[in-house]
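In response to reviewer comment 3 from the previous cycle, which asked for concrete evidence that the modeling workflow produces usable outputs, we include below a single protein chain processed end to end. The sequence was submitted unchanged, and the resulting structure tokens are shown without manual editing.
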Amino acid sequence: MSDPDFARGALDGVRVLDLSRVVAGPYIGRILADLGADVVKVEPPEGDQVRQIAPKHDRGMSALFTFANLGKRGVCLDLKQAAGREVALDLVRVSDAVLENFRPGVLDRLGLDWETIHAANPRAILVSVNGYGADSEWRDRMAYAPIMHAITGIMHDQSEYAGQPVAQRNEAHADTIASLHAAVALLAALRVAERTGRGQRIEVPMFDAVLATYTEANNALLPEPDDRIMNPIYDAGPHGVIATAGPAHYVWALVVRAHPELTDPAPPGSDIPTKLRLRRPALEAWMVSQPSREAVLEKLAAAGIACAPVIPILEALTGPLARERDLLVAVDDRRGGTRPVVRSPARFSESGNRIRGGAPRRGEHNREILGGLLGYDDARIRALEENAVISRGDPDEG
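The workflow returned the following structure tokens.
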């Protein structure tokens, strides 16, 4: 490989072989691709199932597939065939890292266990994201984000906090959190490999990652529960819903100090629950009395309270703040048009960190990678195609 051009990205010159599916593994590769790495995504003949996890009109090149696979090159490879395994090992030999998120033991059954990978390329790092850990009694259980939200306790904790029935999170929180931990670990292992010439295996169980990152885990472990009412949300009537940060009594005290016309409805000597119960409607009535939402926010901010309106996600994605931040980037949707996606958040003063293209169609770069990267001749590639070791999807991936 040529000398890296760090202006293109801090990981220019790094190659990653992505064997993973759905979100928890692929999003690691997306992060690395934005940072300049050459990420080669391997899909099975039927494609990554996340292509189909979408409304009917968006299947094939779904929003979720696009989110997790931007900027990658794609190969469609049947790893269950011996010839497919040989292609995969050739890709390992020219890669710095390998990503996988199968259940423990699946990679071994495919003949791509850590020992085989390490023998093929001693410098390569293997990153394994799974549900519960290879040494867990739960190792063989399926582990998708909704299941992780349940078994880690965060669904239950959030329902108690909100005083609402238990409800699933409308996001793949467990997947992306595990991906971020895995990406950080991989970058650390790359540094070790650069110094020592030896790769290593990294395992990131989603169960561990969620609880390691959940800020309320430490509060749950206190000998006595934290009974404060934190970060209250207020109904400001025509001005919408207003979120604040801090304990409820702190919010009240700061508002009253800045606006003494707001009198305390709680009788002297009232206990804390009574104060909280009576002060909330008084504070909400004060907000309703203001001339606009902007006036509410300005007066809260002037009182020293962190606050913001509760807005729909589409407004957040397309509103003035998002436009100021150049948050959205139009990418090729691989169907003849474009679709907007959120850019990577880290902005380097000297190195690039940007979306480098759309997500690949199934098997789109088979010949480019096998011929250009691995040096296979046309006859060998044709034989792999004829034996369905490699395959391609339809142009629109519908």
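The first helix runs from residue 26 to 34. We consider this sufficient to address the reviewer's concern, and the full set will be provided in the supplementary archive.
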